[in-house]
Structure formats: C-alpha cells, structure tokens
C-alpha cells in the first residue's frame, strides 16, 4: 500500500498516511473513546426512548414539545448505530460490516449532528419570537408550521450529510484489515484537497458557526429586550434550553477544532500522531451529547420529573398487581387440581 493510495484519507477513521494500516493495539485515547461510545449508547437509547414516549405519545402536542421530540428522535436514531462504531474501534479499526453500512453509518452520524444543531437553533429562535414578538408568535407559531419547519430541517440535514453516502468507501489494507474511509475517487491531489476542504468548511459553517452566532444573538436580544428579566431567568424552559445548547457546543467544539487541524495534516506529517488520538476522543465527546439531553430534561424540568415519577409508579403498581393476581390464580388452579383428588379419597 503506497502513500498515494491513502492521500485522500480522512483521519476520522484513524489511519495515518505513513502507517499505511490500522494500529494493531488500541491506545489510551482509543480506549477512552470506546468508553464515551459505550456510555452514549447505554444511556442514549433508553433516555431518548423515554423522551420520545412522553413527548410523542403522553403529552399534548405543542410547538415546544415538537421541537424537543424531533431532537430526541435525531439522537435516538444515531445511538442505535453506535454499536457499529464500538465494534470498529474495538477490532483495531477493522470494518467487517460492508460498504453500504460504512456509508449509512457515516451518513447517520452527520445527519444527527446537523439535525440536532438545527433544531437547537430553531428552539432558540422560537423562544426569542415567543417572548419578544408575541403578535407574530400568536399568528405564525403553530403546530402545523412547526411540523413543516421540522420537515425542512430534516431535509436540509440529509442534504448536507449526503456526501457521506457518495464518498465513504471500504478497502482492504495489510493483514486483511478493512477500513471505512473517504474515497474522493480522483487522482489529482489538488482536487482531493479542495473536496476535503469544502466538506469540512461546510460542516463548520452550517453545523457550528451559523447556529452559534444565531443562538448568541437570540439570547443576547432576549436579555436586552425582555424588561422583566425574572420572567426569563426564572423559567425552567429557559434553563432547559440553555443547558441543552451549552452541552451541544461543549461536546462538539473539539470535533470541529480537530476537523480544521485535519486539513493541515495534508501538509504537515507531524500532526498525524495528534490526530490519531484527537479525532477519536473529540468524536466520542460529540457522541456523548446524544445521551445528555434526556438527562438534562429530567434534572431541570419539573414537569418531566413528575411525569417520570408518575409513570414509574404506575408501572410498579401494575407489576405488583400482576404478581399478586398471578399468585391468586395459581392458588385457584392448585385448589381446583387437588379438590377432585381429595373428593376421591373421601369417597373411597
């Protein structure tokens, strides 16, 4: 395997150009990233499922619940695919699942990232419009319009993440190890670098900078224009939204930083070792975000806490009732089985 074969490789999957094959043993950074992936999966699946259950089936449909419901759906779809990442890293960056799952896995990761940040952005805009422009909010802030905007957001996230379906590919390197990597399909190095730059900067602009600027402006205007600030800061919805937004940017900022550093690695081989550890770690931290939102809802939202406690109580009561009823039925069956025998013995 030559250098030219992998000059279009993305360090997201941890194969350096000079090593030419995945590492045979996992580094400490990769072990930590495995821990992040596992935590995100173990907490994210049940956590987001609970949020989807309450906001999708138990609560009345409103604009706010629809925003958070879509956010939970995006996270839930993503964490379902995490076992593929976990297996990939645990096997020393060997991809045994085939080319189409390689494409789909990468696409789902990008779809989740963009859908999550877009929904967070519109949650902030929705909060601003509701408090600062009540007349406009009363007229246009409807469930129907929210559903339409949600569809547009999903389509936009799919379009921006779509290149993964085209560029992601698999190939076999030394020792029959299969990798999932960015195959830009060209032999012109300048065109490869241009394609890579475009993909990274589009992700940075739409998945980070635009949402960050929008949210900062919205919350700044809220603080300035809302005269009764106690109404704003005492609202648990405000703190829920703030916590979710802060968690997103804390988790995903390192990923975007290393993505920019990755672009420089085409010209500086000294960055390869840094990226081999930094990309998996920053990606794992980003994945953690998918399991944080349900935890934040439970910690901050009194309504969510009350609903969870009520549901758990109902489930326990139902379980105890079924157990007690099962015992009663068993006793009745036992009595019905023994009664004829006792009657026969008496008759004899």
TrEMBL record:
Membrane topology: Multi-pass membrane protein
Gene Ontology cellular component terms for the protein in this record: nucleoplasm; plasma membrane
Pfam families attached to this UniProt entry: 7tm_1
Main location as per UniProt: membrane
Domain of life: Eukaryota
Location in the cell: Cell membrane
Transmembrane feature ranges: 28-54, 66-86, 106-125, 146-167, 198-224, 236-258, 278-300
Domain G-protein coupled receptors family 1 profile, chain residue ranges per copy: 47-297
CDD domains reported for this sequence: 7tmA_GPR1 (cd15119)
BP terms from Gene Ontology: glucose homeostasis; inflammatory response; phospholipase C-activating G protein-coupled receptor signaling pathway; positive regulation of cytosolic calcium ion concentration
MF GO annotations: adipokinetic hormone binding; adipokinetic hormone receptor activity; complement receptor activity; G protein-coupled receptor activity
InterPro entries: CML2, Formyl_rcpt-rel, GPCR_Rhodpsn, GPCR_Rhodpsn_7TM
Keyword field: Cell membrane, Disulfide bond, G-protein coupled receptor, Glycoprotein, Membrane, Receptor, Transducer, Transmembrane, Transmembrane helix
Keyword Disulfide bond belongs to the record: yes
Family that this chain belongs to: Belongs to the chemokine-like receptor (CMKLR) family. Belongs to the G-protein coupled receptor 1 family.
Name the record gives this protein: Chemerin-like receptor 2
Organism lineage: Eukaryota, Metazoa, Chordata, Craniata, Vertebrata
Gene from which this protein is expressed: CMKLR2
């Amino acid at each position: 395997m030559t250098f030219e074969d992998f000059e279009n490789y993305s360090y997201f999957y941890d194969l350096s150009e000079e090593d030419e094959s995945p590492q045979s043993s996992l580094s400490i950074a990769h072990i930590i990233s495995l821990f992040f992936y596992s935590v995100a999966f173990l907490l994210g699946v049940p956590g987001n499922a609970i949020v989807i259950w309450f906001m999708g089936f138990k609560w009345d449909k409103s604009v706010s619940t629809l925003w958070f419901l879509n956010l939970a759906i995006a996270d839930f779809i993503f964490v379902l695919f995490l076992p593929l990442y976990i297996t990939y890293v645990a096997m020393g960056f060997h991809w045994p699942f085939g080319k189409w799952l390689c494409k789909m896995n990468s696409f789902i990761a990008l779809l989740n990232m963009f859908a999550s940040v877009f929904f967070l952005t519109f949650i902030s805009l929705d909060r601003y419009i509701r408090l600062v422009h009540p007349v406009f909010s009363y007229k246009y802030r409807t469930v129907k319009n929210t559903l339409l905007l949600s569809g547009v957001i999903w389509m936009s996230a799919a379009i921006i993440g779509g290149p993964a379906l085209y560029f992601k590919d698999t190939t076999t390197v030394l020792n029959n190890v299969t990798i999932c990597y960015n195959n830009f399909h060209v032999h012109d190095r300048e065109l490869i670098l241009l394609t890579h730059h475009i993909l990274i900067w589009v992700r940075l602009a739409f998945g980070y900078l635009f949402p960050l600027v929008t949210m900062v402006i919205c919350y700044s205007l809220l603080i300035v224009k809302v005269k009764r600030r106690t109404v704003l800061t005492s609202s648990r919805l405000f703190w829920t939204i703030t916590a979710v937004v802060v968690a997103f940017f804390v988790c995903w900022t390192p990923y975007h930083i290393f993505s920019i550093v990755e672009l420089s690695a085409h010209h500086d081989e000294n960055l390869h070792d840094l990226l081999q550890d930094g990309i998996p770690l920053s990606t794992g931290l980003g994945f953690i975000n998918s399991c944080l939102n349900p935890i934040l809802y439970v910690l901050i939202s009194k309504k969510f806490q009350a609903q969870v406690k009520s549901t758990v109580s109902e489930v326990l009561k139902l379980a105890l009732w079924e157990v007690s009823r099962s015992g009663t039925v068993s006793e009745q069956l036992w009595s019905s089985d023994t009664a004829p025998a006792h009657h026969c013995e008496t008759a004899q």
